[in-house]
Write a structure and sequence with these properties.
CATH topology of the largest domain in chain A: Rossmann fold
Chains: A alpha/beta, B mainly alpha, C alpha/beta
Number of domains of chain B: 2
Structural class of chain B: mainly alpha
CATH class of the largest domain in chain A: Alpha Beta
Radius of gyration of chain B: 22 Å
Number of helices of chain B: 10
Structural class of chain A: alpha/beta
Shape of chain B: globular
Largest interface: A-C, 53 and 49 residues
Bound molecules: adenosine-5'-triphosphate, adenosine-5'-diphosphate, magnesium ion
CATH architecture of the largest domain in chain A: 3-Layer(aba) Sandwich
Helix content of chain A: 25-40%
CATH superfamily of the largest domain in chain A: P-loop containing nucleotide triphosphate hydrolases
Strand content of chain B: under 5%
Radius of gyration of chain A: 20 Å
Oligomer: heterotrimer
Order of helices and strands of chain A: EEEHHEEHEHHHEHEHEEHHH
Amino acid sequence: MDIVVDSLTYTYPGQPGPALRDVSLEVRSGELCCLVGANGAGKSTLCCAVAGFVPHFYRGEMYGAVLVGGQDTVQSTIGELARRVGIVFQNPFDQITGATLTVFAEVAFGLENLGTPREETVARVEGALRRVGLWEVRDRSPFELSGGQQQRLAIASVLAMDPPVIVLDEATSQLDPSGTREVWQIVANLYESGKTLLVAEHKMEYVARHATKVVLMEGGRVVASGPPSEVLGRDDLEAHGVGRPPFMSVVRALREKGLWDGEVPLTLEGAAEVLRKVSGR
Amino acid sequence: MNPRSPYVHRPSSIHRLNPLTKGVLFLCTVVIAFATSSLTTVLALLGAVVAASAAARVARELARTVAKSAFVIVALIFIVQGLFYPGSRTPLYVVGPLTIWQEGLRFACFTASRLLAIIGATVLLMLTTRPEDLVSELMARGLSRKLGFVVLMTMQIIPNMQARAAAILDAQRSRGLETEGRLIQRFRAFLPLMGPLVVGSIISLETRSLAIEARGFSSPTKRVRIEDIPDTRWESLVRWGASLATFGFVVWRLVRWISSLIR
Amino acid sequence: MQATGIKGTAAKTTAAATARADGKSETVERAGSLDTAGIILEDVCYEYPGGVAALKGISLRISQNETVAIIGENGAGKTTLAKHLNGLLKPTSGRVFVDGVDTRGRTCAAMARLVGFVFQNPDDQLFQNQVFKEIAFGPRNLGYPADKVERLVKWAAGLVGIEGLLERHPFDLALAQRKLVAIASVVAMDTPYVILDEPTTGQDYPGTQKLATLVAKLHAAGKTVIAITHDMEFAAAHFARVIALAGGRVILDGTPNEVFSRPDELAMASVEPPQMARLGQRLGLEECVLDQEALLRALGLV
Ligand SMILES: Nc1ncnc2c1ncn2[C@@H]1O[C@H](COP(=O)(O)OP(=O)(O)OP(=O)(O)O)[C@@H](O)[C@H]1O
Ligand SMILES: Nc1ncnc2c1ncn2[C@@H]1O[C@H](COP(=O)(O)OP(=O)(O)O)[C@@H](O)[C@H]1O
Ligand SMILES: [Mg+2]
Ligand SMILES: [Mg+2]
């Protein structure tokens, strides 16, 4: 199921200027597209537009179109869209429904709403909780979790619903390093199983490693879009508010010194390989 | 216990009642408490609430919550009505320039008991019923998603406010405002916060509704709960019986009222 | 630019700071020993009312003018620990001293003169309807005169780069900006101890740089800065001491070099060393390298 954003311009109600300006973007089925850019660039707004919360929930003024699986989001209801698009919002503290009393029930809530058969719900909830490492705390209240645990809960809730399109808005911001790695591993597996993924992320190490396409945003516009090597290889990356992963910087430094003239690798292991060759170790 | 929800899980027959039954009994209590003018009836309702809370093993929680939420207002009722109830004729005590009237006290007793019965019934319902269960059960009987949503959000208003208030107090203390200690100090800290508290609670309710929507709450399919909520024939009988009795009571009160007007 | 209040604090603490400028951790001394300056935790345990045991015996000493990064897995107890330092939580058993003051005997508001704490979730912290008022709230409570309050607000807003937002409503700002407001509102109190719970969360590259500068400036002003973070690059580059928590206990405590050269213990805390250290480890370097310069030097490439 693919996402097509066609010259989208959107203004939040009461705001002087648009948060998105003439944004066009295509994420094909089975693609892993990462949104990068400074705070306020419009990443979250774009994520919300794909999930239909812009404009259904936030209202405001929207021009252009967003199609998910060929269907216009403006024409669909939020309820229908929830089947097709799962979204993890950027603020983990905002994602607890408050309707349920345990971690288990919280993850089950979405599946219940979709009318999933009972046995399947129970199995899927267990699977999702185990994947994000919350199985041990399943009987606790969602409000008795640490920040990172709440973020894991939000991710589990969407994983359990298993929609064809998954949008993650800085979903690893509060996770410990292993948690971040694990979630990205889950993302990579989802990508391999053919899901369409749109991921806003500040942790460039993972963007470089996993993205099939990187979209650089600034001031509500798409500045660049292409494979990670191209976008993260831009000389002006930092000027757009995005930090290059340190391992890429090391290899670039070698290139500047004339010690290396090959590709800049997209993984830490790749960089280690380059360093090994160059230093002769 | 959930810090955001008053629900207390205990193995009791009241907890096991179908949420709809509890909801109907709650409504009946509220309607009768409003319709009646007899102290005996109100006291009977109050007694029923207390007895039910004992059966549900939440009597202590009920007492604590009701005391916290109703203490000030009950005290005010007694002071104001005891001293200034219009048409009072029988003085009971004279304390300096103030006279406490018997009629005033009786009226205060009635009003306070009525209030306590209503608050007690509300708290008892919240202590023994998971919001999600009540809403699911209502929706299973044809309540629309929209209304279900409204009920779900409404039941969150108070816990949300409490959580928000606790958060604000923590934020203030951490920045040097004395919020512990004497009542007056706590009050001073709290008064200027009513505005932000309301605004903050509304915003947090809004984000909750965002989360609920993202989980497909308004999806057009029929909800399937992971747990069955049991219902029995006799519970249904109780519901019908209580509703009819309450309806009868209200009609009877109306008839009495109208005939008193005619006479 | 520094407010005058800062200089005062700096002068007061320099003596203690030079005494342990090495920033190394020490064994816990008994309270009542000659030197009570700094934060001392003695076998602190904490259990939440719901019964979750979050801290299971933490003993630590943090000296004045140290910069400490606390790292560790989600749910390790970092936030719970931080809330003990300003008296928001009181230990179930054990004791916490700040400059010789037992937190059990003080209200949190009294501790706020000594310890400023920035919440993990800015929405738990912000409650005023204007950014200026929000930042001024703390200094006002400390009883500073209006002109000093204003100076502190400007200074703090400048440090985190939100001078332009002072007239706005905090709820109109994006999450990352609200976090900066929350940080400024604590920095403005000009306390000798500043605790930041996950300051870099959700910040973009320039935002993280700004926070790094903030840590350096607070340190230079003589303050003790303690930051909880999941960003190992940030922890390694800007803090002299790193403490790793797991399961409510301290499992590593030392300089970034010491801590990040122990990948096995770090894995127990669900933490990975920074990228440079990982590169060094892959290349079989003996020593722990934390920045590009050190890595290239160790490989003989400069
Ligand atoms: N309000 C609460 N009530 C009960 N338990 C809680 C509460 N807050 C946190 N906990 C639990 O206490 C433990 C420590 O939580 P804490 O918030 O200190 O973790 P943390 O190290 O800050 O994690 P994170 O990196 O995710 O923020 C965890 O097991 C958590 O689930
Ligand atoms: N709920 C909202 N109401 C009004 N303006 C908003 C809202 N959310 C974001 N904005 C504004 O829209 C712009 C884009 O923000 P956002 O999409 O959050 O960017 P990013 O996710 O890249 O940080 C910013 O100028 C921001 O202030
Ligand atoms: Mg965002
Ligand atoms: Mg925390």
